[in-house]
Amino acid sequence: MSKIQSLTLLCVALIAILFNSPALAQVSYSANDQVQPYTLGFHPAANIGQYTAFSEDQLALLAAGGAPPSGGQGGEVLGAGVKSLRPGIFESYAEVAGYDANLPIFQKYAELGMSEHTVIVGFPSAAHQDPTQYCPGIQSTLFANMYLPIWDGGANGTPYNDSNYYAAYLYKTVNAYKDHVRFWEIWNEPGFDYTGGLGFLSPAAPNSWWNVNPSPCDYKLRAPIFHYVRLLRMSWDIIKTLDPDAYVVVSGTGYPSFLDAILRNTDNPVDGSVTAEYPLKGGAYFDVMGYHSYPHFDGGLREYSDVTQDWIYYRHSDGAANAMLQTKADYQTVLDSYGYNGTTYPEKQWIITEINLPRKEYPDPSDPGENFIGTALAQRNFIIKAMVTCMANGIQQMQVYKLAEDTDFDNSYSEFDLMGLYKKLDYNHGYYQELNEVGVAHKTASDVLFGKTFDPVRTAQMQLPANVGGAALKDATGNFTYVLWAKTLTDMSEVASATYSFPMGLNVSNLLKCEWNASISHDAFSVPTANIALTATPIFLTQRVFTMNANMGCVPFNLQLSPQVPGAATWLWTVTTPSGFPVTFNTQNPVTTLSLPGNYGISLQAKNAAGQVIAEQTQTLFLEQAPSPIFDFVQSGPIVF
């Protein structure tokens, strides 16, 4: 470090001490004291992205699905099953557009049933960017005046210090959107390694980030790592003051070594050491660990064999799901080493802020002659397995990258081009765009699994064979859904087969099977409980509480319902129409005629003679408008004109 840089950092430190900023903290606890468990359930989520000529309202509807504004042609938009989003609200945008400019779109998200959003914060306007060049010739990307006090007691008419630009921006942003946002992600990819090699180095390498703090010349922030810890400290103070139920997220660190640098340093601008003014290290100022999972290139689909002196590959959907968990384990190992293990300090909560595989093979630059995994089949299989894996391992959100592809299949040159739930959006088609297979699979899995929780006891009782993957998930009333698949084992192949039989002791019967594309096919099939045929593509099995005479049809439709609940004494049926209007029935086997096209929710709540609810379930029914001929005909004897 140059003498000028050292003097700059010392001046910043003296300013911080002069203003006594730690004494102005509003929150009396840190993540070393408490991390509240997240109890609102797993949310299938997506990165919303930016698409020229498409409004935020259009993108929201493509994500969640629903009825388009009046005048839309083609009926209800299917959507991709997204229940939560990850947009950014940067200071460079908010200073121009206004701090409440995006409130209408967040309200639209809520109307469409999306909530618990993650918002990326940071990225100052040019006027508020730190002018210091911690790397000669390259300006810091962070905010100026970060070491001024956060709070000023209302001296300038606001509770925050207007001269601390990050504090002012974050306070206004959180205050505006706190009713819509659960997770506040502090910067996007703060650990992005511009050298492409230092972050990957092992602890044995003397110049690795495990041993030496990242140089401002080598990574995205272009500032000392202590300044990122400062961001976290201010973020914790402001966010927890305004919304104690919200979470502070560190994500996109890129490498466990960068996380180690955060955890071993304080925000002391001189050297990151502990002092009275800077008492806590970085782990004290965030309660959610996020990460990106791109198994095709993050090293999780191969290992080096000392025997063959070559790579062994696992490029299939199960290998990718396992790699996703291995990345989590790598970060948890670092957290454990600093006491974030539930014993010394509370454990962190977890989300995945970017995840996917490409649907096209691309060359692997790290191994000439080899390609990354990349097929539509592997991609859709992986997204379902990843969702189930998240639910089974305490990962609260899985934010798919991303809503739509950047280009068409033939013209793509990067794997990130072909990771969309939708194909490249076509402005001429408005609200009605084409889902990729991965989008259909995501929609199906979201529809079937949202609102359910992983049941480890029931899963263990399933006694899954070694070649079968799956899980048991339970809804609020105790009904189980089972996800099953044959595990893939062959490199670059999704061919797998197995059979599975439920143990007799589970008393499973009357199963209804949905496949990966049920969100568009609306097909459901009765299957036996023994010798169920499985492939590499997961299936969803639900024990039915009731049956209906069809799962889809044309209006007018004669609906007939029958309960499958032994011991029930009373039945409450609710038929929710596409317009949202519910109709109820109390008879055991109701029959009714439905006249509106669209999606219906058919629910049954069954009670015993004591009035206790013993079974409850909702199924869907999809009805289309009956086709009408676009011609007339006249018959004359045996001839039709």
Q: Can you summarize the main beta sheet?
A: 8 strands, parallel
Overall geometric form: globular
Beta percentage is 15-25%
Record the strand order, biggest sheet.
2-1-10-9-6-5-4-3
- What is the helix fraction of residues, given as a range? 10-25%
Q: Give the termini separation.
A: 91 Å
Radius of gyration: 27 Å
Word description of this protein:
- 43% of the residues are buried.
- The model is unreliable at 1-24 (pLDDT under 50).
- By secondary structure, the protein is an alpha/beta fold.
- It has twelve helices and 28 strands.
- It has helices at 3-19, 56-64, 91-97, 103-111, 165-177, 225-242, 256-264, 317-337, 376-392, 437-449, 456-461, 518-521, and strands spanning 43-46, 84-85, 117-121, 181-186, 247-250, 288-293, 302-305, 310-313, 349-355, 395-400, 453-454, 468-474, 480-486, 497-500, 511-514, 525-527, 532-535, 539-543, 546-548, 552-555, 557-563, 570-576, 582-585, 591-594, 598-607, 613-625, 635-636, 639-640.
- It is globular.
- It starts with a helix and ends with a strand.
- Strand 3 (117-121), helix 5 and strand 4 form a beta-alpha-beta unit.
- An eight-stranded parallel β-sheet has the order 2-1-10-9-6-5-4-3. The protein has a six-stranded antiparallel β-sheet with strand order 11-12-13-18-15-16.
